[in-house]
Amino acid sequence: MRWLRYGEHGALVECGSLAEAGALRAVLADAHHPDVVELVPGARTVLLAVRPGSAALGELRELAESADLDHPPAGEPSEIEIDVHYDGEDLELVARTAGIGVDEVVELHTGAEYTVAFTGFAPGFGYLTGLPEPLRQSRLDSPRTRVPAGSVAVAGEFAGIYPRSSPGGWRLLGHTDTVLFDPKADRPALLTPGDRVRFRKAS
Amino acid sequence: MRTLEVVTTGPSALVQDLGRPGHAHLGVPPSGALDQAALRLANRLAGNPEHAAGIEATFGGLVVRAATSCTAAVTGAPVAVTVDGRGRGSHVPIHLRPGQELAIGTPSRGLRCYLAVSGGIIVEPELGSRSRDVLSEIGPPPLRDGDVLPLGQATGIPAGADTLAPPAPPDELTVPVTLGPRDDWFDVTGLSAAWTVTAESNRIGLRLDGTPLDRVAERAGTELPSEGILTGAIQVPPNGLPVVFLADHPTTGGYPVVAVVRPGSLSALAQARPGTTLRFRSSG
């Protein structure tokens, strides 16, 4: 774990793996420190921003360095099930690349349990870990200029769902009607770091 | 209900308050007025709490009509302000009677003007803020001619006759930065060279032109897994031309951040119009 300075009131903590970053995020979130302004997990990092003049960075560093990252606090993750219509434009391509049938792609995708590792790209977009090996495939060579909202997709080690229409290069398996982000809702983002997700085949 | 009518928006008029920090883990940028000092001042002059929502007018040109009696103030880039055609000046409280029109001219220096009106603009907040985030498209849509904006009840006392000289944004800025987190990826001496603010700059970030920043040999071609971004981060994409992230920045990104602008300089960056020269100076 390496603490890097990030401006006057921040620190970027570099971890050895995605799992370690997830554990560190859980430890830091569990502290509920009142002076933390932002706590942003990344693929190998956790970014902290604190109130100017606060001693929070030092206190949290001490906490992090003494924490048992093999057994992070569980927190209170939501368990979310998302119904998917497996009709994505890249479903055949993903099956072919994996050397399996379309049905097996659906079985693999619905059979796994995912964790929201971090967010970004757009409000409510969660990078989900737990993707079965055969579905870990590279981004499209040429990204689409428009991916429809609700598209359920995979890229690299991650699964994800486009909360709204945007350009994108992930491989599309299908779509969901579930609302991923609503800025007017009490809980605006369906997916928050640490949450558990399962996909279900919509009938 | 007290209201304010937008007669003409000018090039870009957005409702802004102090933003919605604290949601970056959901992928939501902080947003808020780019020149926060100017919005706070406008609110004080209009008798509002500093966090009330006002209008950020880029390149001026905003004309509003008071439907009810109110106190207004224009701050930020120094600019001509008229009421029904009569010159009134910026950085002063201005009383408007029902039906009177306040017009903001085009600033000769700087970029963004802030209009505060007593009671503040009380459009529906999203995630605790009335700021328009142009990246995420959260918050009230960009204002259009003819929009009628609801105002809250005026409660405070306008900051009397304290006339403040508008700041004159310089043509060349020196911007203090804190090096890191990824300063070891670059030859950072290039930061102090002259950079020019380009016309592609917006509320998401200032895009700079100049001599590309070189990566050190051992980092050439290295990919960076996505990591969090804060306002003021100077991110360097593979072309070596830095982007200074402003309030509507993406919350994570896959290019290294070489340094972070000190918070006290963000207001000056908000007023840096295309063509402005700036140099970064690392301090501590």
UniProtKB/TrEMBL annotation, chain A:
InterPro entries: CT_C_D (IPR003833), Cyclophilin-like_dom_sf (IPR029000), PxpB (IPR010016)
Molecular function in Gene Ontology: ATP binding; hydrolase activity
Keywords, in A-Z order: ATP-binding, Hydrolase, Nucleotide-binding
Keyword Hydrolase applies: yes
SMART domains, alphabetized: AHS1
Start and end residues of each Carboxyltransferase domain: 1-191
Spans traversing the lipid bilayer: none
Domain of life from the UniProt record: Bacteria
Pfam families the UniProt entry points to: CT_C_D (PF02682)
Descriptive protein name: Allophanate hydrolase subunit 1
Species per Swiss-Prot/TrEMBL record: Amycolatopsis suaedae
TrEMBL record, chain B:
Any Pfam family: CT_A_B
One MF term in the entry's GO annotations: hydrolase activity
Residues in the signal sequence: none
The organism's place on the tree of life at top rank: Bacteria
Alphabetic keyword roster: ATP-binding, Hydrolase, Nucleotide-binding, Transferase
Domain annotation Carboxyltransferase: ranges: 25-284
Protein name: Biotin-dependent carboxyltransferase
Taxonomic source organism: Amycolatopsis suaedae
